[in-house]
Specification:
Helix content is 79%, strand content 0%. With 533 residues, it is mainly alpha-helical.
Length: 533
Amino acid sequence: MAGEACPPQQHSAMVSTTDAVPAAVAPAKRPPINKYALACALLASMNSVLLGYDISVMSGAQLFMKEDLKITDTQIEILAGVINIYSLFGSLAAGFTSDWLGRRYTMVLAAAIFFTGAILMGFAPDYAILMVGRFVAGIGVGFALMIAPVYTAEVAPTSARGFLTSFPEVFNNFGILLGYVSNFAFARLPVHLSWRAMFLVGAVPPVFLGVAVLAMPESPRWLVMRGRIDDARRVLQRTSDSPDEAEGRLLDIKKAVGIPEGASDASDVVAMVRANKGAHTQGVWRELLINPSRPVRRMLAAGLGLMFIQQATGVDCVVMYSPRVFEQAGIKSKTNSLGASMAVGACKTFFIPISTLLLDRIGRRPLLLASGGGMAIFLFTLATSLLMMDRRPEREAAALGAVSIAAMLAFVASFASGLGPVAWVYCSEIYPLRLRAQAAAIGTGLNRIMSGATTMSFLSLSNSITIAGSFYLYACVAAAGWVFMYFFLPETKGKSLEDTVKLFGKDADDDDDVVAGAGRHERKKSTELSAQQ
């Protein structure tokens, strides 16, 4: 009856049910991908197509180049691997130009460099000019490796940063696949034309890319560093999941740059940024290399260690010399080995979406550890099968050849689904803003040095300890890398770029106070949202 009191037991039940309601509230749904940020990430990552193409096209071109120009294996080895050493200069220069010209115009410059390098290599009359073209292309490789992940990380909202920042590696692998396809497509041309056509095709995409990049906005972090607060706010409003997140990200950036919260594009802000610019540029290298704080040392150890491991496992040797490895595995025909090499590119291209889709769901560490463990196992399997082929009858050798091919493709798939893309994502998000461009340049430089060292020594190493011995060595490196990743890499999933650096300890330049209530709330909200995915 109306107005009748509830029995005590019923009242208690109703109270407990009411009290339990908050615990039953459905978790927040993941926001949809920001289409504008997605478009920016896609365009920025197109540079990596050129990078992948320039590296992989050499695997097939070297076979015809050697016959046409009458050059030795040693010259081929140097020509193939030296692009990675040359790219060191490009990555270091990109650290300066990205702060001077901006991230966007640095990408335009990279496209122009790629175009010039492709033309020089395609029309090279001799080995010397070919080496000059390789040098120019290497500078472009360094630019692309450094700038694409940095720009994408600075534009992407927290909820999709891992997904979007993995795009450069996705497009790099697509470029590698295109290089293999080019090798196979032009292999039937006359010897003096085939390798030239392979290089010249690489001059077409940079033209369109250089124009398309001009439609992109500049990085909001670079705009803030230049005192263009209102321009940065407009970009953040278009690339964030909500207006509150845009304001929170802006407050975080302004704090990192040293600009008061209420400042705008007034002349005093511009003067403040210009006054700090010289000290910032001069102090960055000192802070990174001469007198790093304890958190910065930990960041460098994590970032540089990861870049070392990524290349010291010999993945670029498989990319660059896959026809020779397939020949060792029993595929003797030149055309067949080039066709089989496309399977390497296909594995790298088709397995990379695994990490792209899982980065913001399960985190960076699980992907890195699963990938590193798989690489060590499959490298050991590849080495063992190649070693046993030389000691078994022809029938058994054929079966072992199939095992070695499967192991090589599984190694490539393991790399592409974890260590390949995640290393770039991880290293683009662990450094504070004031050090990010230069630290990323150092990491990219080390990555290229290791790639150059492995690709320039693979043929000599294989002649010395056999191809099987070389892969045993890389398997040991992969196993040691797994141990390093397990103990030294904290999880960064769901953290804003400004909060990620705190995982390595409190930085000396951080204030003890929280930036602002709104910014803190939004960061917490974004972190919880990603953690629920």
